[in-house]
Structures are given as structure tokens and as C-alpha cells.
């Protein structure tokens, strides 16, 4: 870590007698009173410095480090929901003051290298936090570096790579202690499930409507490079896993299928290691115009193996089972074996057909478990289908346009 950056960042942690608590314990009751305006705080049997503060809603500084991205954001919440009518233009209930990320360069390794990602976190995290605090300082026009601090600090606690997580956790703990504010550790997958609600809170462009943010209860299909989960959410903190993967995540499967299917030159010239996106571009060069997709009308049609003009056909994952589970390893290994067997004889058009079929089967497999969950008798008893009118698809794979079509 750069010494100058670290020194400047540490200076911003220091407690100002005009704005910050100078040690000691302050009760939650006193903190609540203070948030209503100017109060004199008492602690350790004595009187602390007068803590002047404008009335405002809670703000937080958050950092996300679970894989190869180093991300820092400052978010503020506003209490505007109760004052809005259904017809009025929507006011944002939250403001994103700062958000920036740095992604580790893992290109030489064709995947995420833990040590490279760790070094990137350690090199960039302090600088991003210092930049976030400078951004707030510049926007407020205050003459002192200590004019602002968050109400609490959030950090990703997992799941993710342990080395990456520990960098963020250790930094967040230091900030929490220095600022004397709470630390909130966030589950990575829970954050994915709630991202649409955050997006809606930040948006002011649409008329206020219940469906702008998914109303509880709702289903979430969390699809990324590390996880594949079907989750039912009934509150912000109450989530039930209905299905998970038996072997590998769908994002991991698509990346590995891409390594096999893509022409070698495309991978060598790629500037990223998330090859699933590259695979989508390759098999659908015209985007959604190339999808030409019709959903199966019956389960039997879904399970039917389709043979290509090249003579091969891919098996449907878990075709003989109705278990609430996902599996992608068989699909990935079949694509790899087929390409290896054909060798140099496999041309670009056949590669494109293979990628399309693998993607179709993977995405229909996801959809089948969503339908099965809604059809389960115990699910119907626990929650009426009329109460579940939203499916959230979140995670890195959710950006795939063909998945949206399916």
C-alpha cells in the first residue's frame, strides 16, 4: 500500500472535537436523541464536546471485495415514501453519492487468480476510500476534512474468496472503530436478491408504483460465476433457499463452455476473463435478432434431446429428476469432450451452434426449477401463488440477453 495514500486516509479517520465523539461510550438512546438535532452528549460520567449536526437520514460507506472487484460506495437514505402519492412523480428514497470500482487484471490466467486479486485489493482499497471521502468533502463545500462521517460502515462478509473478503473486513473494522460507528456485515447473495429494491430507491424517473420495487414476497434467481440459487424472500432479512446447484455455478459453467467452444483466437485477444459474455457475443452476433427462441409447451418437449445438423445432441440436465436442484457439470463436460474429439475439424458455424444449444439448455434448466417451485403443493400452502407476482433475476449472468428471452 502506498504510504502517502495510507497517511492521508488515516488522517481522515481522526476524530474532530467539533464533529466526532472523542472516545467513551454513548448509549443508543443518546445517539437517537442526537440525530434529531443539536445535543450535548454525556459519557463516562462527564460531558463531551457539543456535537452539532444537521437533521438528516442515515448514510453509509460500503466496500465490496469478494472476488476480483474492489468497490467502494457512499449511500444515503431519505424518508420520502410516506409523503408520495401514487400519481406524483417519484422522488428517490436514496442517493448514491459515490461509487467506483477497480477490477484486477487476471487476463494472463484466463480466470480469477486469488493472489493477483488480493494484491489488487490491497493496492486500491485505501485509495478508493480516500477518493470517496474527498468526493463528499468537495460536494459539501466544507472547509474541514472532518465535516462528514457515515452513520455506519457495511462490508461484504461472504460468500467469496477468503483472502479478498479478509481485506475488506479488516479495513471496514478499522473504519468502524476510528469513526465510532456500527459495522454491518452483508451477505453477498442477500445483496444480490435486494439489489432491485436499491435500484428502485435510487430511481426518480418513473411514477411511483408498487411494482417499481419488488414487493414482498418475491422469488429471486441468483445466477453468477460462484452461485446458482432460487430464493424466496418475505422480508429484507427473511430468505429461504428453494434450490441450489449440485456441482458448479451456471456462470462458471458458461465460462468453461466458452473456453472450449470459442475459436482460440477470440480468447487470446480478449481483454477479460469472464468468457460467458464473449460466448454470448459469438453465438448471437446480431444480439436478440438471432435468438429465434420458442419456449417448450410441455415438459416432454423440454426433455427431448435435439440433434444438430452436425449429428450431436446435448442431454438436458437432470432430465430424469424433478428435484429442486441445479446441475451444469454434465453440460460443460459434454461440450468440452465434443470439441476435443472433433479437433481441428470443428468449424466456426458448428462452434456457434454448440454454444447456442448449451446456452439454451442451461437457461431452460433454470426456468424449469422456477416452474417446479411454483407448482409444489407445500409451496402453495406456505404462500399463495397470487402473492408471488415477481421474479428477480440477479447476478452477473442476469445481464445475458438470451437468458432474458428464455
Chain-wise SSE layout:
Layout: H1 3-13, H2 28-34, E1 39-43, E2 46-51, E3 59-64, E4 69-77, E5 94-103, H3 114-140, E6 152-158, H4 162-179, E7 183-187, H5 188-202, E8 218-223, E9 228-233, E10 239-245, H6 250-261, H7 264-268, H8 275-283, H9 299-303, E11 325-326, H10 329-342, H11 348-375, H12 377-382, E12 391-394, H13 401-405
Parallel strand pairs: 3-6, 6-7, 8-12, 10-11
Antiparallel strand pairs: 1-2, 3-4, 4-5, 8-9, 9-10
Provide an overview of this structure.
The structure is a single chain. This protein has 13 helices and twelve strands. It is of the alpha/beta class and 406 residues long. Strands 5-4-3-6-7 form a five-stranded mixed β-sheet, sandwiched between helices. Helix 8 packs across helix 11. The radius of gyration is 25 Å and the shape is globular. The N terminus is likely disordered.
Task: Give the structure's gist in a few sentences.
The chain has helices at 3-13, 28-34, 114-140, 162-179, 188-202, 250-261, 264-268, 275-283, 299-303, 329-342, 348-375, 377-382, 401-405; strands at 39-43, 46-51, 59-64, 69-77, 94-103, 152-158, 183-187, 218-223, 228-233, 239-245, 325-326, 391-394.
Amino acid at each position: 500500500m502506498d504510504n502517502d495514500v495510507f497517511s492521508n486516509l488515516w488522517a481522515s479517520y481522526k476524530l474532530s472535537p467539533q464533529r466526532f465523539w472523542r472516545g467513551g461510550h454513548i448509549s443508543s438512546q443518546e445517539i437517537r436523541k442526537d440525530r434529531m438535532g443539536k445535543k450535548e452528549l454525556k459519557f463516562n460520567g462527564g460531558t463531551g464536546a457539543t456535537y452539532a449536526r444537521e437533521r438528516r437520514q442515515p448514510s453509509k460507506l460500503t466496500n465490496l471485495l469478494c472476488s476480483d472487484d474492489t468497490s467502494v460506495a457512499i449511500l444515503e437514505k431519505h424518508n420520502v415514501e410516506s409523503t408520495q402519492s401514487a400519481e406524483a412523480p417519484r422522488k428517490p428514497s436514496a442517493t448514491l453519492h459515490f461509487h467506483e470500482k477497480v477490477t484486477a487484471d487476471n487476463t494472463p490466467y484466463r480466470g480469477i487468480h486469488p493472489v493477483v486479486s488480493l494484491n489488487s485489493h490491497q493496492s486500491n482499497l485505501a485509495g478508493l476510500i480516500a477518493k470517496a471521502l474527498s468526493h463528499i468533502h468537495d460536494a459539501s463545500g466544507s472547509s474541514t476534512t472532518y465535516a462528514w462521517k457515515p452513520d455506519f460502515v457495511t462490508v461484504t462478509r461472504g460468500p467469496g474468496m477468503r483472502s479478498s473478503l479478509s481485506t475488506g473486513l479488516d479495513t471496514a473494522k478499522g473504519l468502524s472503530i476510528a469513526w465510532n460507528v456500527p459495522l454491518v456485515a452483508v451477505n453477498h447473495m442477500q445483496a444480490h436478491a435486494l439489489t432491485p429494491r436499491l435500484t428502485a430507491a435510487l430511481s426518480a424517473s418513473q411514477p411511483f408504483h408498487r411494482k417499481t420495487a419488488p414487493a414482498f414476497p418475491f422469488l429471486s434467481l441468483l445466477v453468477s460465476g460462484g452461485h446458482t440459487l432460487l430464493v424466496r424472500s418475505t422480508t429484507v432479512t427473511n430468505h429461504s433457499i428453494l434450490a441450489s446447484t449440485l456441482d458448479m455455478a451456471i456462470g462458471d459453467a458458461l465460462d468453461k463452455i466458452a473456453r472450449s467452444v470459442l475459436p482460440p483466437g477470440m480468447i487470446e485477444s480478449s481483454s477479460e476473463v469472464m468468457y460467458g459474455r464473449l460466448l454470448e457475443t459469438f453465438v448471437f452476433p446480431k444480439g436478440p435478432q438471432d435468438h429465434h427462441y420458442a419456449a417448450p409447451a410441455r415438459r416432454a418437449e423440454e426433455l427431448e434431446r435435439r440433434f444438430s445438423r452436425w449429428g450431436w445432441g446435448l442431454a438436458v440436465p437432470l432430465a430424469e429428476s424433478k428435484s429442486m436442484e441445479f446441475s451444469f457439470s454434465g453440460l460443460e463436460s459434454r461440450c468440452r469432450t465434443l470439441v476435443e474429439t472433433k479437433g481441428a475439424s470443428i468449424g466456426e458455424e458448428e462452434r456457434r451452434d454448440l454454444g447456442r444449444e448449451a446456452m439454451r439448455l442451461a437457461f431452460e434448466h433454470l426456468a424449469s426449477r422456477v416452474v417446479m417451485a411454483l407448482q409444489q403443493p407445500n409451496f402453495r400452502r406456505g404462500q399463495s401463488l397470487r402473492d408471488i407476482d415477481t421474479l428477480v433475476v440477479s447476478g452477473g449472468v442476469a445481464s445475458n440477453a438470451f437468458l432474458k428471452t428464455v
